[in-house]
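Help! Submission page says 'invalid entity' but I think these are all valid:
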Amino acid sequence: MIEYLVVGGLALYGIAIAVAVIRMIIGPTLPDRVLALDIIGVNLISCIAIISVMLSTTAFLDVILILGILAFISTIAFARYLERGVIIERKRDS
Amino acid sequence: MKINDVILHAVTKIVVFIILTLAIYLFLSGHHSPGGGFVGGLVLASAFVLLYLAFDIETVQKGIPFDFKLVAALGAFIAAASGLGAVFFGASFLSQAFDYFDLPILGQTELATVTVFEAGVALAVVGTVVTIILSISEDV
């Protein structure tokens, strides 16, 4: 029973990632594409969690942490680029 | 225009320490499980990149007064010197050794000389990645 649930969840996450990829390709504006990229990152984290349940191992939990950190930093970088046009400032003007 | 990024600064001050903890954990767990100096160095560099993103270059360099080119050079020197140390004991270049010691709190612990080599690799990776990021960002 649990195997069917795990495989079904993995398939649903695959569909979600495919829909996000479509949005990233046809997205009219740049914030749509950034948001689709963030959604793909979060869904990949969930996929790795489900795979580690399916294989009953804990070796992939470091991958989840690193992927979460990279998704967080990339979201901040894209948001700064959209908002100000510069990612790392030389000196703050405040 | 004055920009208000209180939330980003407050989150960054907490999350940076979580990332640094994960980097130390990855560096030390690389002996028997996935991890090691390269991955630990990359995560450490991502913590520095997050600091540079949230604040600016001059503020971070006032708090962390390292020249990251020198850090990369020091890491490469440590990695090569730890490999060269094996030559003086009659072993071939980059040979590593380990032994078991009784430490006061930790009990019997396995200490290996490959940790020194991994520390050099981590320093080289941190210096290289932060130098690349800063050189790219200066073009704007």
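Support: the input was valid. A stray whitespace character was the problem, and the output above is from the cleaned input. Strands of chain B lie at 98-103, 107-112.
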